[in-house]
Specification:
The chain is of the alpha+beta class and about 450 residues long. The chain contains 7 helices and 14 strands.
Length: about 450
């Protein structure tokens, strides 16, 4: 049955593909090649497969070329949009930096004004005390003068009574020398009386002038107090707001700074005791409140120097990646990014963002060359992918110190700074601190 099927298939093929012979003639001989039906079918099928494969491959290449062109154009458009957005953010950052510099200058001017006002207040207080002492002396002198005047009046009245008891002509005739003595005594007494009255009037006028001067000084002191109180409000509120925006409880921060800056001392002096409890005057109460506010302002200033309220770079850079989950530039997967990236030129200076101590300097897997600084309040900052580190482990640094140069070491796609802020070992968004200080420094 198989033979019969094969014969039928061969007959069918013979009908469409009859057997052919291809003759090959040379000078001495003639040969031919016999092409059977099966051979022709196989050749036609092979040619058809080849043509089909060529058509499909060409279509795939054309489609891939068209798709790649569209993707590249889309990528270029996205890149241009992203670059434009980065330029806008960079311009905004520069503007905020200029505003922060102006705010810092205003803050410094306010501190200088507060210091000048405090000195003026102390001078006014000393002058007021001197005037009060002068008034007391003048009042004492005036009381003594008034007593002397009353005594002189009494003595004059007695002399007049004595002179009235005897007739003038009898006294004069009886004792001319006594009469002359009494006349001289009366003249001297009248002069002394007039002088005492003039001195008393002068003392009263001087007292009025001193009281006017004291009143003017009191008004001046009130004005100085008012300006100092306004300056304290303007200076303290932005700092308090800055710490609260950064999530740092101000009460705990101030207490911690005060514990760290509480040194006192001095020579041993004899003890003195007082049983008199004096009440404070309103000016003294206001002065004490101002001194407490100045102390709080100083505590804020110290705390601000020890917390990373600054940019790690001062040159023209742009932020290429923020804090949080992102698409990994190497694997493409979704991963946590525990810092912010600032891209810039190779060798760009990197600065410490707060006072602290370098706890690590060297090479770390993934980070490349890295510097780690420990600050107060359990805060730690990390500066990674550096081309060169300029500090050593254990070195104490201050805000603004040059600690490294920007590079692309470690797991990096290009020159940039990877900047982290950790609180008690837990990464937090560094931009929280940088943005919180924009309107203060």
């Amino acid at each position: 049955m198989r033979t019969r099927l094969a014969i039928k298939l061969h007959s069918l093929l013979e009908r469409h593909f009859p057997e052919r012979r291809v003759f090959l003639k040379s000078d001495n001989d003639t040969r031919f090649i016999r092409l059977s039906s099966e051979t022709q079918v196989a050749a036609v099928a092979g040619v058809a497969v080849m043509v089909g494969w060529t058509a499909v491959a060409t279509a795939i290449l054309l489609m891939d070329s068209i798709g790649s062109g569209n993707f590249r154009e889309q990528a270029k458009r996205d890149q241009a949009t992203y670059q434009e957005r980065l330029n806008i953010l960079s311009a905004e950052r520069d503007a905020r930096a200029a505003e922060a510099l102006a705010a810092h200058e205003r803050f410094s001017a306010a501190l200088e004004q507060v210091s000048a006002m405090q000195s003026e207040l102390l001078k006014s207080e000393n002058r007021r005390r001197e005037l009060e002492t002068g008034i007391e002396v003048i009042q004492t002198t005036l009381r003594a003068t008034m007593k002397q005047r009353e005594a002189a009046k009494t003595e004059l009245a007695e002399l007049q009574k004595t002179s009235e008891g005897d007739a003038p002509h009898v006294a004069a005739s009886a004792n001319p020398a006594q009469m002359a003595f009494m006349t001289d005594a009366l003249a001297r007494t009248a002069q002394e009386r007039d002088q005492i009255a003039a001195d008393a009037k002068g003392a009263l006028d001087q007292r009025d002038e001193l009281e006017l001067e004291i009143r003017l000084m009191q008004e001046r002191s009130d004005e100085i107090f008012r300006q100092l109180e306004e300056a304290m409000v303007i200076s303290v509120e932005p700092l308090d707001k800055m710490f609260r925006k950064a999530g740092m409880p101000t009460d705990r921060i101030i207490d911690e700074v005060r514990r760290g800056y509480s040194g006192m001392g001095g020579p041993l002096t004899p003890l003195s005791f007082s049983t008199r409890g004096e009440e404070l005057t309103p000016d003294q109460i206001r002065a004490n409140i101002l001194l407490e506010q100045m102390d709080q302002l100083n505590m804020y200033r110290i705390a601000a120097e020890q917390a990373p309220f600054a940019n790690p770079t001062k040159s023209a850079v742009r932020m290429t990646s923020g804090f949080g989950f992102r698409r990994d530039p190497f694997t493409g997967g979704r991963r946590m990014h525990s810092g912010v990236d600032f891209a810039g030129a190779r060798g760009t200076d990197i600065y410490a963002t707060a006072d602290g101590v370098v706890t690590f300097e060297g090479w770390k897997s993934g980070y490349g060359r890295v510097v780690t600084i420990q600050h107060a309040f359990g805060i730690e900052t990390v500066y990674a992918h550096n081309t060169k580190n300029r500090v050593k482990k254990g070195q104490r640094v201050s805000r603004g110190d040059h600690i490294a140069d920007m590079g692309s070491t470690g797991r990096s796609t290009g020159t940039h700074l990877h900047y982290e802020v950790r609180v008690n070992g837990k990464p937090v968004n560094p931009m929280t601190y940088i943005k919180a200080a924009r309107n203060v420094f």
